[in-house]
Structures are given as structure tokens and as C-alpha cells.
Design a protein that fits this description.
By secondary structure, the chain is mostly helical. The chain has two helices and no strands. It has one domain. The protein is rod-shaped.
């Protein structure tokens, strides 16, 4: 099992690559979701400010 984590002496590079890949995937999944929520809130604030009511909810 230790040899698996050691990766033939390249463990630092391999595990760093895996970590960076997971960070990028996480950002690509969570980022658009947060941006969507912010856009919805902004549109809601705009409608409330202008006194318009939407039946789309």
C-alpha cells in the first residue's frame, strides 16, 4: 500500500496534479451555481425596485 502512495518517487507531482484537477472540477461545478443564485437575486431586487411583478415564479 505504501508503494501505491509513493508512486515510484513521483508522489508529490502525481498527488499535486490530482489535487489541482479536483479543485478545478469543484470550481467548475460550484462557480456557475453561485453565479446563478446571484443573478436570480439581482433580478428579484430589480423587479422589487421597479415595482414589477412576474408570474413566472
Amino acid at each position: 500500500m505504501g508503494e501505491f502512495f509513493y508512486m515510484g518517487g513521483y508522489a508529490f507531482h502525481v498527488w499535486t496534479s490530482y489535487a489541482l484537477a479536483f479543485v478545478v472540477l469543484f470550481i467548475n461545478i460550484v462557480g456557475p451555481s453561485m453565479r446563478h443564485k446571484r443573478n436570480i437575486q439581482s433580478a428579484s431586487d430589480f423587479q422589487q425596485h421597479n415595482g414589477t411583478i412576474s408570474d413566472d415564479t
